[in-house]
């Protein structure tokens, strides 16, 4: 009898331990294969999404010659150099296999044909003549910071940056304002042709910029806006995506709130500005992120209307590194990293706003 | 404070007529309750008064002024919504001050009014909270507070208690009655709950399918409903409505009630023998009788509420009859009881359901 109950007790304990061991259970519990599969899947996702960015950032610190190297290296490497007494300039360092089979680190003085004349940095009197295939460069990790500093100093990059910031900020503000006004009308009011108006707005989504490039360019020219930043800002200020996004969100706002505003003697502007806009904040921040990304990365339209260097935006400025005959990849990559920074920051700071939904409407 | 007048107010949504010509006058300081089943148009009528809906036809006058075409913001009315409709992004204080800011009052005046209303509604401790941090009852009080700070011409309430639990509903109902006694404004209140209507109203407006069925004080409606609809709607449990046939009307109204003869002393109303009528009697006006009973019934169900007992009983050929007994009646299912109607409390309705004129 006693042994039976003891046995039952230990059985219960065993099953409890097994239960605890599953799913992030006790320490040392082996991961279930589904956990491993999930982690592997997530790791692949990270690699796919973040790999190119990491490659870009690391490559931006490579020298021009290191970029063209084959096979390519992941980290930026540079050949080590040493100062040798009796030599006016620092000399590149090589690891050399000598005819007797020993390996030494030697500095190369000059190269003649397939032979290299080398010295031992520790003993400059000792000179060697080595076939070039017997030597290998000694390399160390080195960040070519000049990829960043040189274009920032030489080119008008701060100016381009300023132009880009101006275009992005002003265009985003205008976009938010007029899109939310259009969305307010299409979501809150009842009027004849409301459906048709909405369809027309959505319909413009189907017309790509390339098709209307020329007519819009002509309009902008007539308005005398060519080579002004307003030519970049104004034509794209009203986006169908933005109107649609905000309208759909505003439709979810309780009608009672708007009617309560009317009863509270609020004017239409006050209802829009003090009731609807604050409650639409999550959708507005989504649109703001989109708008910033669109405007910051916009290329084709600014390229068409901006022809003077002083009004270039960053993306157009970057294009200058890409010549007809050669591309300065090291500058291009470094400046691409610079242009990525603001968009990343915007996303980091605004993404929290997206998730705070309207769960807090205070309605029951 | 103001009086309100509706003249022939009609409202259609496309082909659907919701209000069929409403004529109504509400006196200054009166508490009027619109009551009716769902879909009867009572909320639409309130929204028409508020200005949130325009009338298709007819006129709305407030204080003698025609306001038919004026938008809600210019009618100077305040409304408490069923959902409360508190602005979720504003604190309680801001919620109450919003209308006052729109009216262009000075901030000292706004503060004074908000503080006064908050004190009256016991909200002073919650002024800086957001609505979502309040309980249902507190939200309800904020919604009322938002209306009373305005000092509007008329207060409109759209089923304000329907989101509260039973206990809180009774408490808030009393508070509303006290509030009306204290500030004395003209109030119009919409509900589908006839108990709320009976307890709060100076006058009740009973609506059905977009028409006013009867207007009167709660007891008027209770004692002399003008038709079977009002008779059935007002009072809980419902009035018993029993089909009968006239057999004679010569100073004594003789009826045939499912094969039993009933005679009531009543001045002749010229009812031809054979005419169908409906006999109405409230559950509390039926008495149990051992001898010379009008009807013999079999008990179906007994509800003991402690202070009173409801007995549901039936007889062949008649709908189920409800009786109310004071105290705790010792009755059981299946028991056979005799009942007698209290003649002065009998109601008679004609074929169309309208009350036969009382002598």
UniProtKB/TrEMBL annotation, chain A:
Keywords: Cell membrane, Membrane, Transmembrane, Transmembrane helix, Transport
CDD domains membership: TM_PBP2
Family matches, as Gene3D superfamilies: MetI-like
Domain ABC transmembrane type-1: 161-350
Pfam family, one: BPD_transp_1
Domain of life: Bacteria
Bilayer topology term: Multi-pass membrane protein
GO annotations of cellular component type: plasma membrane
Subcellular location: Cell membrane
Descriptive protein name: Carbohydrate ABC transporter membrane protein 2 (CUT1 family)
Gene Ontology biological process terms, A to Z: transmembrane transport
Listed transmembrane segments: 36-58, 165-189, 196-217, 229-250, 271-294, 329-350
Entry's family note: Belongs to the binding-protein-dependent transport system permease family.
Sections of the chain in a coiled coil: none
InterPro entries: MetI-like, MetI-like_sf
Automatic annotation (TrEMBL), chain B:
A matching Pfam family: ABC_tran
Location of the protein in the cell: Cell inner membrane
Membrane-protein topology: Peripheral membrane protein
Main localization, broad class: membrane
Keywords: ATP-binding, Cell inner membrane, Cell membrane, Membrane, Nucleotide-binding, Transport
GO cellular component assignments: ATP-binding cassette (ABC) transporter complex, substrate-binding subunit-containing; maltose transport complex
Span of domain ABC transporter: 4-234
GO terms of molecular function: ABC-type maltose transporter activity; ATP binding; ATP hydrolysis activity
InterPro entries in the cross-refs: AAA+_ATPase (IPR003593), ABC_transporter-like_ATP-bd (IPR003439), ABC_transporter-like_CS (IPR017871), ABC_transpr_MalK-like (IPR015855), ABC_transpr_MalK/UgpC-like (IPR047641), Mo/tungstate-bd_C_term_dom (IPR008995), NA-bd_OB-fold (IPR012340), OB_MalK-like (IPR040582)
Similarity field: Belongs to the ABC transporter superfamily.
The protein's name in its UniProt record: Carbohydrate ABC transporter ATP-binding protein (CUT1 family)
Species annotation: Chelatococcus asaccharovorans
Phylogenetic placement of the source organism: Bacteria, Pseudomonadati, Pseudomonadota, Alphaproteobacteria, Hyphomicrobiales
């Amino acid at each position: 009898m006693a042994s039976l109950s003891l046995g039952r007790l230990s059985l219960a304990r065993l099953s409890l331990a097994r239960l605890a061991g599953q799913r992030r259970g006790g320490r040392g519990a082996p991961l279930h294969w589904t956990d491993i599969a999930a982690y592997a899947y997530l790791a692949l996702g990270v690699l796919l999404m973040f790999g190119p960015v990491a490659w870009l950032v690391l490559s931006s610190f490579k020298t021009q010659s290191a970029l063209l190297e084959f096979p390519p290296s992941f980290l930026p490497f540079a050949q080590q150099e040493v100062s040798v007494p009796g030599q006016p300039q620092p000399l590149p360092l090589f690891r050399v296999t000598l005819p007797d089979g020993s390996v030494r680190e030697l500095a190369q003085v000059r190269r003649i044909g397939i032979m290299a004349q080398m010295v031992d940095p520790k003993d400059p009197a000792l000179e060697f003549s080595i076939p070039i295939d017997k030597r290998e460069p000694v390399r160390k990790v080195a960040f070519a910071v000049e990829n960043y500093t040189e274009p920032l100093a030489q080119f008008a990059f701060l100016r381009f940056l300023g132009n880009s910031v101006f275009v992005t900020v002003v265009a985003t503000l205008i976009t938010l304002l007029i899109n939310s006004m259009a969305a307010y009308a299409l979501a809150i009011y009842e009027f004849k042709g409301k459906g048709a108006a909405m369809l027309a707005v959505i319909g413009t989504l189907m017309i790509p910029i390339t098709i209307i490039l020329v007519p819009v360019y002509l309009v902008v020219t007539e308005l005398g806006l060519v080579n002004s930043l307003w030519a970049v800002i104004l034509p794209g200020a009203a986006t169908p995506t933005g109107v649609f996004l905000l309208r759909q969100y505003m439709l979810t706002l309780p009608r009672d709130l708007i009617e309560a505003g009317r009863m509270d003697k609020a004017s239409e502007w006050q209802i829009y500005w003090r009731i609807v806009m604050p409650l639409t904040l999550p959708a507005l921040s989504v649109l703001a992120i989109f708008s910033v990304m669109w405007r910051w990365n916009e290329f084709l339209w600014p390229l068409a209307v901006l022809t003077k260097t002083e009004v270039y935006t960053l993306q157009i400025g970057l294009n200058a590194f890409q010549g007809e005959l050669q591309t300065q990849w090291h500058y291009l990559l470094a400046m691409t990293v610079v242009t990525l920074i603001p968009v990343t920051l915007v996303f980091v700071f605004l993404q929290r706003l997206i998730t705070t939904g309207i769960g807090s409407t205070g309605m029951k | 404070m103001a009086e309100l007048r509706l003249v022939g107010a009609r409202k259609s949504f496309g082909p659907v007529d919701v209000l069929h010509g409403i004529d109504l006058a509400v006196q200054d300081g009166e508490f009027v309750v619109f009551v009716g089943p769902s879909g009867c148009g009572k909320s639409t009528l309130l929204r028409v008064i508020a200005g949130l809906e325009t009338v298709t036809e007819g006129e709305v006058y407030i204080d003698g002024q025609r306001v038919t075409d004026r938008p809600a913001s210019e009618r100077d009315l305040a409304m408490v919504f069923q959902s409360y409709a508190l602005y979720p992004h504003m604190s309680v204080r801001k919620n109450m001050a919003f209308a006052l800011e729109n009216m262009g009052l000075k901030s000292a005046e706004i503060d004074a009014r908000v503080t006064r209303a908050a004190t009256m509604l016991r909200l002073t401790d919650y002024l800086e909270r957001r609505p979502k941090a309040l309980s249902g009852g507190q939200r309800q009080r904020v919604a009322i507070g938002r209306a009373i700070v305005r000092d509007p011409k008329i207060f409109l309430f759209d089923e304000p208690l329907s989101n509260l639990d039973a206990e809180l509903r009774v408490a808030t109902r009393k508070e509303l009655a006290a509030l009306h006694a204290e500030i004395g404004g003209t109030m119009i209140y919409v509900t589908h709950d006839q108990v709320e209507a009976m307890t709060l109203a100076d006058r009740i407006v009973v609506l059905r399918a977009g028409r006013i069925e009867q207007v009167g004080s709660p007891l008027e409606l209770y004692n002399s409903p003008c038709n079977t609809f009002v008779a059935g709607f007002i009072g809980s449990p419902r009035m018993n409505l029993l089909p009968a046939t006239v057999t004679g009307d010569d100073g004594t109204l003789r009826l045939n009630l499912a094969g039993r003869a009933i005679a009531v002393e009543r001045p002749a109303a010229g009812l031809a023998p054979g005419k169908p009528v409906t006999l109405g009697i409230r559950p509390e006006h039926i008495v149990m009788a051992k001898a010379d009973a009008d009807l013999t019934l079999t008990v179906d169900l007994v509800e003991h509420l402690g202070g009173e007992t409801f007995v549901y009983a039936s007889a062949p050929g008649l709908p189920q009859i409800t009786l109310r007994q004071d105290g705790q009646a010792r009755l059981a299912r299946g028991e056979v009881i005799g009942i007698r109607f209290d003649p002065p409390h009998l109601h008679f309705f004609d074929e169309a359901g309208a009350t036969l004129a009382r002598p």
